[in-house]
């Protein structure tokens, strides 16, 4: 599952808590927000351009379109919007065929720029690039430091900081396995989302459908089982479905 798909899964899960009519109203509201954002983006509003790129990336209020996401991220970059560098880095890191290694290298450069410009999202993007061999020499120590800085904000939109920390402490590269720390970070991520979400996303990281870390089917399966058990505690069996196991 790609970064975009994982975020889309998160959104889809959230909608399970609403009735059909509320969901329909929610979709209409998203479409209105998209149109308003697009109008502002066309008027050269850098923040709106970034938000529009995010909407195309996630399929919020509009059909998902990676090409348009890239175009609008570049427009925001022209206006020196720091988070836009991170968004474009993420787009390359999670949606590029590994054959095109130059995109992974470019992603690290973009993420570095974002972080240097003060983007917290950029710190997560840079940490991701630093643990991805395709983007260059790995630096797990620096990646952990960046992720801890981002995780300290406790912002739901930065939930991938504690999730990546949980993944790293599950045993990636030269990071020793520390189950206690991994579970601590997964718990922190679940606190700002919902039970089982962090372990499920970590499972996808290890599944092989990303090209960030080395695939490990055993860890992927173990983490999805944990996601199932955690979610069941609150009556949610979504991660226990056959499609996830």
From TrEMBL:
SUPFAM superfamilies with a match to the protein in the record: HCP-like
Matching PANTHER family: ERAD-ASSOCIATED E3 UBIQUITIN-PROTEIN LIGASE COMPONENT HRD3 (PTHR11102:SF160), SEL-1-LIKE PROTEIN (PTHR11102)
Protein name per its UniProtKB record: SEL1-like repeat protein
Superkingdom, taxonomy of origin: Bacteria
Record's keyword terms, sorted: Signal
Secretion signal, residue range per the UniProt entry: 1-24
Naturally occurring in which organism (per UniProt): Proteus genomosp. 6
């Amino acid at each position: 599952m790609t970064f975009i798909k994982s975020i889309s899964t998160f959104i889809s899960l959230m909608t399970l808590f609403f009735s059909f009519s509320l969901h329909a109203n929610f979709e209409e509201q998203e479409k209105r927000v998209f149109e308003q954002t697009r109008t502002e983006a066309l008027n050269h509003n850098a923040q709106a351009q970034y938000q529009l790129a995010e909407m195309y990336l996630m399929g919020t209020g509009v059909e998902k379109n990676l090409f348009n996401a890239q175009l609008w991220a570049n427009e925001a970059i022209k206006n020196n919007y720091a988070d836009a560098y991170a968004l474009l880095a993420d787009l390359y890191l999670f949606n590029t065929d590994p054959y095109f290694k130059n995109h992974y290298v470019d992603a690290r450069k973009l993420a570095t720029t974002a972080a240097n410009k003060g983007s917290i999202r950029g710190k997560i993007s840079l940490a991701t690039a630093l643990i991805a061999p395709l983007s260059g020499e790995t630096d797990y120590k620096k990646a952990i430091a960046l992720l801890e800085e981002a995780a300290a904000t406790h912002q739901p939109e930065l939930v991938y900081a504690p999730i990546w920390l949980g993944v790293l402490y599950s045993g990636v590269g030269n990071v020793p396995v520390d189950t206690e720390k991994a579970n601590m970070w997964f718990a922190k991520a679940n606190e700002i989302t919902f039970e089982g979400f962090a372990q499920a996303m970590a499972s996808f990281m290890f599944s092989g459908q990303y090209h960030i870390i080395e695939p490990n089917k055993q860890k992927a399966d173990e983490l999805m089982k944990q996601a199932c058990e955690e979610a069941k505690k609150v009556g949610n069996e979504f991660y226990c479905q056959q499609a996830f196991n």
